[in-house]
Amino acid sequence: MIQKKCLCLTALFSLLLASSQALQARAWQVRPAMSLAEIQDVFDRAGDGDKVMFHKGVYDFSAGPFLDVYESVGAIIIRDKTLTVRGVGDVLIKGKDSDLDGSGQAIRGLTAFQVLNPDQTRDVTFENLGFETFMMAIGISRNVTPAVSYPSSRHVTVRDCGFSDIQRNGICVNNPAGNVTIKNNRISAVRFGMYITWNAIEGQQNWQNDGMQVDISDNTIDAGRGGMVVVNGNQVRIVNNAIVGTTTYKWYGIVVEAIKTGAQISSNRIDNVKWGIDLCAAWVNNPPFPSYSEEFRNTKVENNTLTNISITGMWLESGFVNDCLISNNLISLTPWGNYGISSDGHDNRFTDNVISGAGLNAVLLTTCDYSGAGGPFCAAHEEYFAENSVSGFAPGDAHYVLDFNTHDNHVHGICPENATVIDNGSSNEVTCLFAPGGVSLASFRLARISGPEKESGPNRDLRL
Prior knowledge:
The chain is mainly β. It has a domain at 27-273. The chain contains three helices and 39 strands. A nine-stranded parallel β-barrel has the order 5-9-11-13-15-16-14-12-10. It has a three-stranded antiparallel beta sheet with strand order 3-7-6, with no helix packed on it. Strands 21-25 form a two-stranded parallel ribbon. The protein starts with a helix and ends in a 14-residue tail after the last helix.
């Protein structure tokens, strides 16, 4: 009986403590007439777990520090506290133009919010805010130098926000300890929509913690350079995003480099970019840190629609990508596009994809040498293709091309399609595919060897 009373008292004490903490949480009010210094004072005085409410109106952040991209300073700094920053009504936070390099990327400028929490014990949430004309809108522990990055907060959430005229990244998150949730944001006229990374800390390769996840879903992104980059995440979910490339100097829709547990990339719509979805192991060597070659596996890429792709729709690169499923995707290339699907990986399954266009090949299984960048020499092997529909492409080329050194792949066409194949590899199993009409295998091989080099991918150093 005494033990039961003690348990009841403990439960009551826990309930009272939780209620007390909830009552202590405070909502701080911010209004457009306040100066930047007054707004920073609100953030400094706010307690752990409080809310900072931005009321309807336009906020001028242009007096904030105008600094190099790698300096961890924002117009407003949130330091070592859990906060929710929320807009009430239509809120627009305005900065000023950045200094740009020759490619149009900001190298000095203004960041709206910077979050600093090196012990990774605090959470930050941004909701219903609008940002316009910044180098970067939301930064979570930026790089201090191009070669060194430090820990940031615990959980990070950005939802229902708008971003426009951002000259580097809309959202940049470095090395959080917990979950990253980016949902239902409207991101337009930006260079990169978002950059989420767990990268080297003082020479040691870093990963998102076990049990944590990345959820990027229901966002609309119109980006000049690329939609999103995720590096070294744990469990990654990228679902139902709409990404459109808006300039001629465009790169990627979605880049995922190295996955610790697995990823789901599904139901995304990507239009007018060079590379639609890129899956890559983290093989890049960044001196003075050692090379690292982290594998990439257990990822499902399903039900995505990729249109107006001018180089490659699905790109599995680095030689380490394996045990992934690429299924039920619609891929359409422009007349100058190269490949619907390209892979130098192994043991991946490609099924029920629909690939069309007037580019070079629907599928390229290839050989690549990454040794100069800390990676391997590799060739596609044990890749499995079945029930993929292909149409169009260059009449003198082939729908499927298996490069030199590729081996032991299983490539099965749909018999009634009469799709074509060039197999320059060894021990590949090929069924229901036919040689290109009117072009001998010897002549085709000679043309590929003596012709112009294939367009290579961009510089893999995507640190921003």
